[in-house]
C-alpha cells in the first residue's frame, strides 16, 4: 500500500473533527517536504498530536516539539519516524508485542527518517550551539516513544539512559543543585518532566538505577504538597499534569515495595509505611480538589481526559493502599469491591464510545494509536498482577490481550 492510500484509509467517515491549536500559524517553516512526507506529517498533526496533547504536558508538544520540528531538520525527521510507526499501529489495530518482526511500508519509512535524524545529530557532535541540548533531548524523547510503540523495550531504555546522561551533564550548580528544580536545567521544564515520567515507568521493564533516587523524590514532595494546597487546578489538563508530577515517586515506591520479599517488607516496614501514608495523603488532597473541580464544571467527568484522570487516581490509590501486602493476603479481601470498580472503569475506558460517534463496544480496530500515557494498561496490569481475586485477574488479562492498547 502506498502512503497516499494509507493516509486516505485513516480518515474516519462521519467522525468528529479533532480540535487542534493553531500550531502552524506563526511557525518559521524551513523544511522542503516530499509528497509522502507531507502525508505522514498530516497524519501526525491530525491523528498523533491530539493524543499526545491529551496524554502529557501540552506545553511540551505545542511550545517545544512542534516548533522545533519546523526549524530543526533532525527533529523534523524524528517526528516523521514517530508518526510513521503510529500509522502502522493505526492500520494494524494494535501495538506490537516484544519480539515481533515488524516489516511494513510505514516501518521502512520510519527507519529511513530515524537514520536521517541520527545522521544530522552526529554532524553536530561537539557543537557549542545552545540550541543543541533541547534538540538532542527532543529527538531522544521521540526515539524512546517510537521504540516503546514497537515493543523494543531494551532499545527504548538505551535511548532513555542517553537522555538522562544529557540531563545530568546539563544540570547547573554542581552536585548540590536541586535535581527537581527546573531552573537547574537550560531546557524547557516539560522536557525534564517527560524524562522523569518515562524514567519512572522504566522501573518496571529492566532499569534499576533511576535518575532521581526515591529519597530525593520525597524531598521534592514538600513543594508539591504546598502547590496542591495553594493552587487548585482550573482545567482538566492542569489536573492531569498535577497528578502526573506524582507518578515518578509513586512508581519508584511501588517498584520498591513489590520487589521486596516478605521478610524484607517486614524489615523495611517502619520506613515504607510513612512514605506510603505521605503519598496517599497527596492523592487524597488531589481527590478533594478534583471533586470540587468536577462539581463546578459543566461537563463534569464525561469527557475522555476527565475519565483518564479519574482512572489514574483510582489506580494509584488502590495500588498504594495494598502495596505493603502480598497479593494473596487476607487483609485485601475487604477491598475486592474497589478492585471490581477499577476493572469496570478500565473496561469502560477501553470502549471509548465518545469517539467518532461509535456505538459502545470493543475499541475499533481503526483507531488504535500509541500515546505517551499508559493509564489504561497500568490499571489492567495492576489488576492482572496484584488482585487477590483470580477471576478479576483473568478478566484483566483478557482485556489486555484483546484491546488494541490505545492507552499506551
TrEMBL record:
GO molecular function terms listed in the Swiss-Prot or TrEMBL record: DNA binding; metal ion binding
Keyword Metal-binding: yes
Keywords, ordered alphabetically: DNA-binding, Metal-binding, Nucleus, Transcription, Transcription regulation, Zinc
Entry's transmembrane regions: none
Signal sequence interval, chain numbering: none
Tagged with keyword Aminoacyl-tRNA synthetase: no
Pfam families associated with the record: Fungal_trans_2 (PF11951)
Database matches in PANTHER family: ASPERCRYPTIN BIOSYNTHESIS CLUSTER-SPECIFIC TRANSCRIPTION REGULATOR ATNN-RELATED, TRANSCRIPTION FACTOR DOMAIN-CONTAINING PROTEIN-RELATED
Listed name of the protein: Transcription factor domain-containing protein
Organism: Aspergillus carbonarius (strain ITEM 5010)
Organism phylogeny: Eukaryota, Fungi, Dikarya, Ascomycota, Pezizomycotina
Amino acid at each position: 500500500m502506498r502512503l497516499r492510500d494509507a493516509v486516505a484509509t485513516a480518515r474516519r467517515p462521519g467522525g468528529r473533527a479533532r480540535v487542534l491549536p493553531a500550531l502552524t500559524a506563526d511557525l518559521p517553516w524551513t523544511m522542503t517536504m516530499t509528497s509522502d512526507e507531507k502525508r505522514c506529517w498530516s497524519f501526525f498533526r491530525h491523528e498523533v498530536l491530539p493524543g499526545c496533547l491529551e496524554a502529557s504536558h501540552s506545553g511540551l508538544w505545542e511550545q517545544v516539539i512542534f516548533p522545533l520540528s519546523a526549524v530543526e531538520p533532525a527533529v523534523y525527521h524524528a517526528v516523521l519516524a514517530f508518526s510513521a510507526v503510529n500509522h502502522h499501529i493505526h492500520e494494524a489495530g494494535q501495538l506490537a508485542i516484544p519480539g515481533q518482526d515488524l516489516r511494513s511500508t510505514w516501518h521502512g519509512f520510519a527507519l529511513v527518517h530515524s537514520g536521517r535524524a541520527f545522521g544530522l545529530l552526529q554532524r553536530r557532535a561537539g557543537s557549542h550551539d545552545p540550541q543543541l541540548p533541547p534538540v538532542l533531548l527532543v529527538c531522544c524523547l521521540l526515539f524512546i516513544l517510537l521504540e516503546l510503540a514497537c515493543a523494543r523495550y531494551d532499545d527504548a531504555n538505551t535511548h532513555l539512559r542517553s537522555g538522562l546522561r544529557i540531563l545530568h551533564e546539563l544540570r547547573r550548580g554542581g552536585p548540590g543543585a536541586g535535581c527537581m528544580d527546573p531552573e537547574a536545567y537550560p531546557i524547557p521544564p516539560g522536557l525534564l518532566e517527560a524524562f522523569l515520567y518515562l524514567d519512572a515507568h522504566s522501573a518496571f521493564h529492566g532499569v534499576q538505577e533511576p535518575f532521581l533516587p526515591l529519597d530525593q523524590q520525597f524531598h521534592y514532595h514538600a513543594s508539591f504538597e504546598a502547590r496542591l494546597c495553594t493552587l487548585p487546578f482550573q482545567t482538566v489538563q492542569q489536573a492531569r499534569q498535577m497528578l502526573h508530577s506524582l507518578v515518578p515517586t509513586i512508581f519508584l515506591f511501588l517498584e520498591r515495595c513489590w520487589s521486596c520479599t516478605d521478610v524484607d517488607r517486614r524489615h523495611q516496614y517502619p520506613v515504607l509505611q510513612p512514605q506510603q501514608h505521605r503519598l496517599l495523603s497527596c492523592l487524597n488532597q488531589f481527590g478533594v480538589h478534583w471533586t470540587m473541580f468536577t462539581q463546578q464544571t459543566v461537563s463534569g467527568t464525561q469527557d475522555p481526559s476527565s475519565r483518564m484522570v479519574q482512572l489514574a487516581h483510582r489506580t494509584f490509590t488502590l495500588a498504594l493502599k495494598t502495596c505493603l501486602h502480598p497479593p494473596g493476603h487476607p487483609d485485601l479481601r475487604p477491598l475486592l469491591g474497589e478492585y471490581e470498580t477499577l476493572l469496570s472503569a478500565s473496561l469502560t475506558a477501553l470502549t471509548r464510545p465518545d469517539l467518532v460517534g461509535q456505538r459502545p463496544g470493543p475499541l475499533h480496530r481503526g483507531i488504535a494509536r500509541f500515546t505517551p500515557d499508559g493509564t489504561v494498561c497500568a490499571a489492567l496490569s495492576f489488576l492482572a498482577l496484584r488482585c487477590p481475586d483470580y477471576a478479576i485477574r483473568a478478566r484483566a488479562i483478557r482485556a489486555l490481550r484483546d484491546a488494541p492498547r490505545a492507552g499506551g
